[in-house]
Specification:
The complex is a heterodimer. Chain A is an alpha+beta fold. Chain A has 27 helices and 22 strands. In chain B, the strands form 2 sheets. In chain B, strands 6-7-8-3-9-10 form a 6-stranded mixed sheet, with helices on both faces. The radius of gyration of chain B is 17 Å and the shape is globular. Classes of the chains: A alpha+beta, B alpha/beta. Chains A and B meet through helix 1 and helix 12 of A and helix 1, helix 2 and helix 3 of B.
């Protein structure tokens, strides 16, 4: 019996090639989209599962409070934590910290610019466990000058992965020996590096003055071995990624409490002057989708975007299944005769349903085969569009994926096949005794409802795409009010906290950097544009307001270079002077703050008195409003104080470099840093990149959304094309009769195309309110947003209408221009 | 005389758009085993309706109907289908072959649904094709055959399972006279070999091959059964 079903199904598919092709192609495209979406969602949700013992792996992060107010949520922690926690807490099996630096590496023959490098101790391999291709010993980073490289970097640098014992240079001067080569990390890691160098060697080189390089460390090995162990967590700042491997069964919340209990012994230097640091443990596997702290090594994902993408995949699959149902139903009348004959010959309904399911199974199987081809063919293009390596071919060998695909495949056959199979098998044998024209479709033709649904979804998605791009365009096009181009930012040094020595070093560093030929401006402040807001808030009031008046403002300490360096505009009054002491009781406010205090204009605010925390300050200037963060967040009222109070807190140096040889300028700045702060790591980033990264997730989501919307619309069109072909061919006789009775081609075309435009109109009416609500909700995420206007909906509706007309027009025109005699004879 | 079919006060009414049409009105009808009965009458008189009911494709609104001694009037579709399987063969005016199946497969269809083994299917199909002279067309598809050949295939399909009753609905209606004669010769031959045949026809020539002619008019039999 099964053999018979197969033969009949294959012949049927071959006989109705257009229908089969539309069905198979539609399903295959949808399944291809779903495979890519699956890979994307799986990548997003499977971050950091490749580490050995990943369920027991945690990252230490910290929140920093100033006078009880949260002012920093950092992804990093302190140098020395790992070893100390391992010694003090029995639940900690191993702990380590790593410090990022960007470097270039070279041999005499080859070099790699901007390799991602971390300075690490050998304990790293106890915590972050990953496979090696080859290593010199079980402790590849224990020795002086030791370095381990990724396989790809090794091949790039040495032409082979077998490079153990070979030497190379870092930053043209530091020398390292390859003591291990590890397999490249999968892309779904919150952390990325190609080179790990011995921490001891790094510290040694970082502390040395210019000109000391080569294999100098080896000569000082004995001295290095005697280096005092780090016992103060404030040493080197809070700029390290710190990881703990907990023992099986340990409660991370309990460990977290213990860390916060013992921290006071190690943070004495930091917790002066009202600073409090709270540590937290993050499961490493949760970092990518659930952590968005300052200093993340990579831009993390957004859980909601992942859910939205998964929903989009389901919608596309539904559209394809609906096509399948529609096309099957469209042909059901043709096949009614076959059903009747089979019933007369003794077939039961169950047998007929089984026959149809075999046929649907074959269609789905062929679609799945085509999907495999499409996935492999489109992998590079989709990877490029999404800005990530999807490696689809490797996923196709993944048993979890194959299992899931099989379930979806069977589900598709059952969901999309049940209805047409039941409808088609329900035709009774009486049909054989009726003339052909007496056959009537099933009472309520569900095809129209399904096509309307498809078009409603297509219109909705189109409105979504237009809205997302309008919003992204709006955000990119908005003037930030601040110039963040070519601006390099570093954290302030944590040395000599609270000491006048700190201000002296700062001044020296500033002067040194300012004197560099590639540097345009240098400024210091307690906060930098483009980063998550770190301002503190206080109750502020204008002189003359009742004492209980409270205004919640952000405030920052800046130097007199801040406003010109960022090219902010004074709306009224003046900038701070270089004489910090003279500016002790003056402030500058932004326009928003001036308005908040009730000043009619900027000029009126100047020379007015503000009360901040019981002290009086005179407003000397009003600066323009600028976007501290992405346009998701609203501009806050800000008060700028002049001075270096910030040195007790988290602070930043911003250096505007001239265009030209930026790399050389950075090397110069690094050198200046090492001269002033020999024991501190030079950790920098570019402000515009940081700022732009805030939109990266939106952009990626936009690309994905557009891609799959186009696909959804295309699949819907395939379905419509199939339906139009069928529907028009069914009306061949009617068209012939109309033409014989005087109808023109134009009238017939408009009659036929008109039917489909009515469907689109109904879809439009259904889609509009639903998509309005969804997109309004999405736009609520943005403080600065576009409003949903009717042209967006009209454009989406017209697009859908245009597509529907183009899809059906050719069919309609062909039917309308046919010789009516042929049509009637045919019938 | 053994009775193959007996209908008493057989009534069939159709309700369409609140208009009730009586297709069969208290029809009494009987067919003996081995008999060849022709049903005649103008279009719309209820011939096909009667054929459908006695062929267990449809159920009557009223009256009783016995097939080989079994009351079938009140049976549900599933039971009718079971009873029909292998017991009744149909021949239609428009042949009603499945375009996607070859001649051999079309003929084998009833055997397939009877659950016969592939070997038995092949043997019995081969015998029938041989008998009807269509063996050389076994691998052809219906579209590749003439009307007469198609009707031979349809007859082959109707008899392959060895049914007790063959129902033919205007079997020569779509054929020229030569092919029409061939088909009637075939049916007459089958009847002589013992098959019971009920045939609906408009043709005064074809009906001469039957033992008995039943005339229907406006849902009633106008000559005694």
């Amino acid at each position: 019996m099964l053999h018979h079903y197969f033969i009949v199904a294959l012949r049927n598919l071959w006989k109705h090639k257009t229908f089969s092709a539309i069905n198979i192609l539609g399903l295959a495209l949808a399944m291809t989209a779903c495979v890519f979406i699956f890979i994307h969602v799986r990548m997003e949700t499977q971050y950091d599962t490749f580490w050995g013992n990943s369920p027991r792996l945690f990252r230490i992060v910290h929140d920093r409070y100033q006078n009880g107010v949260l002012n920093l949520k950092s992804a990093k922690a302190c140098y020395g934590m790992g070893r100390i926690l391992q010694e003090k807490l029995p639940q900690v099996e191993a702990g380590t910290e790593i410090f990022r630096d960007i470097a270039s590496v070279a041999t005499d023959e080859r070099h790699i610019q901007d390799i991602s490098m971390f300075a690490a101790e050998d304990s790293l391999f106890e915590v972050l466990q990953f496979p090696f291709v080859v290593k010199k010993s079980d402790h590849p980073l224990a020795g002086i000058h030791s370095a381990v490289l990724s396989e790809s970097a090794t091949i790039k640098l040495f032409g082979t992965a077998q490079a153990l014992g070979k030497w190379f240079r870092v930053n043209e001067g530091w020398e390292f020996e390859v003591t291990g080569v590890f397999k490249d990390f999968p892309a779904n890691s919150h952390l990325g590096f190609d080179l790990l160098i011995s921490r001891k060697t790094y510290d040694y080189y970082a502390a040395r003055k210019e000109g000391v390089g080569g294999r100098a460390v080896a000569r000082d090995e004995e001295r290095l071995r005697a280096t005092k162990r780090v016992t103060d967590w404030s040493f080197g700042g809070q700029g390290h990624y710190a990881y703990l491997l907990l023992r099986p069964g340990s409660d991370p919340r309990h460990v977290e409490e213990q860390i916060n209990r013992i921290k006071k012994d190690y943070l004495k230097n930091v917790t002066k002057d009202g600073t409090r640091i709270d540590f937290f443990l993050q499961p490493v596997r949760d970092i990518h989708l659930h952590s968005n702290r300052i200093g993340e090594d990579k831009t993390n994902g957004d859980y909601r975007a992942v859910v939205a993408t998964a929903v989009l995949g389901c919608v596309i699959l539904c559209i394809a299944w609906i096509n399948f149902i529609n096309l099957s139903l469209a042909r059901s009348l043709e096949r009614a005769k076959e059903v009747a004959i089979r019933k007369v010959a003794g077939a039961s309904r169950r047998e007929l349903v089984a026959q149809y399911f075999v046929e649907y199974g074959i269609i789905n199987f062929l679609s799945a085969m085509l999907t495999l081809v499409l996935v492999v063919v489109f992998d590079p293009a989709v990877s490029g569009l999404m800005g990530r390596e999807l490696a689809a071919a490797s996923v196709l060998r993944d048993p979890v994926f194959l299992g899931g695909a099989a379930v979806v495949w069977v589900l598709g056959i059952i969901l999309a096949g049940s209805y047409p199979a039941l409808i088609q098998s329900s035709y009774d044998s009486m049909m054989l005794f009726k003339p052909k024209h007496q056959f009537t479709a099933h009472r309520l033709d569900p095809r129209k409802i399904l096509v309307v649904f498809q078009f409603a979804v297509s219109i909705g998605l189109t409105v979504g795409v237009i809205t997302i791009y309008r919003q992204l365009d709006f955000m990119r096009g908005q003037a930030l009010g601040v110039d963040i181009g070519r601006t390099l930012v570093t954290y302030s040094s944590m040395r000599d906290l609270g000491s006048p020595k700190r201000i002296a070093s700062l001044q020296t560093y500033k002067d040194k950097v300012r004197a560099l030929p590639g540097v345009e401006a240098v400024t210091t402040s307690s906060s930098m544009p483009g980063s998550e807001i770190i301002w503190q808030q206080q109750d502020v009031r204008k002189d003359g307001d009742p004492p209980h008046t409270k205004n919640n403002c952000s405030y920052a300490y800046v130097d007199h270079d801040f406003i010109p360096a960022f090219q902010l505009t004074m709306r009224a009054g003046r900038n701070f002077s270089a004489n910090t002491a003279a500016e002790a009781t003056t402030v500058i406010v932004n326009e928003k703050a001036a308005r908040k205090f009730g000043f009619a204009d900027a000029g009126q605010a100047v020379d007015s008195i503000l009360w901040v925390g019981g002290k009086q300050y005179r407003i000397v200037g009003v600066v323009n409003d600028y976007h501290q963060e992405s346009l998701r967040k609203e501009i806050r009222p800000v008060i700028f104080f002049c001075g270096y109070k910030w040195v007790y807190e988290v602070g930043y140096y911003a250096i505007k470099v001239r265009s030209g040889d930026i790399r050389a300028t950075i090397a110069d700045i690094r050198r200046a840093w090492r001269q002033i702060y020999p024991m501190e790591d030079f950790d920098y980033r570019f402000l515009d990149e940081t700022f732009d990264q805030q939109y990266r997730g939106d952009r990626q989501f936009g690309v994905l959304f557009t891609l799959f919307t186009l696909l959804a619309v295309f699949i819907a069109c395939l379905g419509l094309y199939g339906l139009a072909t069928h529907s028009i061919s069914k009306r061949t006789k009617e068209i012939g009769i109309r033409k014989v009775n005087g109808a023109t081609t134009r009238q017939i075309v408009s009659m036929l195309a008109g039917e489909f435009t009515r469907w689109v109109a109904v879809a439009f009416v259904i889609a509009c309110p639903a998509v309005y609500l969804v997109m309004e909700d999405w736009l609520e995420n943005y403080a600065y947003r576009i409003s949903l206007t009717w042209p967006t909906f009209v454009v989406a509706g017209l697009l859908a209408l245009g597509i529907a007309i183009v899809t059906t027009l050719f069919q309609a025109w062909r039917a309308a221009t046919r010789n009516p005699v042929d049509a009637l004879r045919y019938e | 005389m053994m009775i193959m079919l007996r209908a008493e006060k057989l009534t069939k009414r159709f309700l369409a758009d609140e208009v009730e049409t009586t297709a069969l009105d208290q029809v009494d009808f009987e067919v003996a085993k081995g008999e060849f009965v022709a049903i005649m009458g103008p279009s719309g008189c209820g011939k096909s309706t009667l054929l459908n009911i006695i062929g267990l494709l449809d159920s009557p609104t009223g009256g009783t109907c016995f097939f080989d001694g079994t009351e079938v009037a009140g049976l549900k579709e599933q039971s009718r289908s079971r009873l029909r399987k292998g017991n009744i063969g149909f021949v239609f005016q428009s042949f009603n072959l499945i375009d996607e199946l070859t001649v051999r497969e079309n003929i084998a269809l009833p055997l397939l649904y009877l659950g016969k083994s592939p070997d038995e299917r092949a043997r019995r199909t081969g015998e029938v094709m041989e008998r009807l002279g269509i063996s050389h067309r076994a691998s052809h598809f219906p579209q590749q055959l003439s009307g007469g050949q198609q009707q031979r295939v349809a007859i082959a399909r109707a008899i392959v399972a060895g049914p007790k009753l063959i129902l033919a609905d205007e079997p020569t209606g779509n054929l020229d006279s030569t092919h029409g004669h061939e088909v009637m010769d075939l049916l007459a031959g089958l009847n002589q070999e013992g098959a019971t045949i009920v045939m609906v026809t408009h043709s005064p020539v074809d009906c001469q091959r039957a033992h008995r002619i039943v005339n229907l008019f406006d849902g009633k039999i106008v000559n005694p059964a």
